[in-house]
């Protein structure tokens, strides 16, 4: 079981290395690949699924669904050319804070947890929307990055539910995500 988790996480973490070559995709495929090429996005999406699994109940589905809805709204703002301050800081903070919430097993009410992930989703969505290639179809591109994000949420949820009997593994994953957030803040 441990080996399966390691293989899945390794594949997700290194997926960006193989896909980070610009100019090979358009439309939905470009949108699908874009979130997978950034460690910050991959970790935040996995963390939403992990935290949802850790909270259990309705949160395990509402957190990813709420994130996806706010991600789409943020993407629309980015595509429309609006300006949102501190986008990169918000993205890095999402990795750091979501990791801490998992690592410390913080149990917020579902509404408060939704508000946390919703704010972070706006930053992630805005970044993806504003980075859309100029020649791309906005709807197809958005469908791609929303689908990729949802798949990462599902992977995090699956990993979290698989590890629910191993609370230390789940909390350790949160600590590792949080440390990666610190590294992203320093390196960025």
From TrEMBL:
It comes from the Bacteria. Pfam families: HupE_UreJ (PF04955). The keyword Transmembrane applies. Keywords: Membrane, Signal, Transmembrane, Transmembrane helix. Residues 1-20 form the signal peptide. The chain crosses the membrane at residues 61-80, 86-105, 110-127, 139-160, 169-186. InterPro entries: HupE_UreJ (IPR007038). This is Urease accessory protein UreJ. The lineage of its organism: Bacteria, Pseudomonadati, Pseudomonadota, Betaproteobacteria, Burkholderiales.
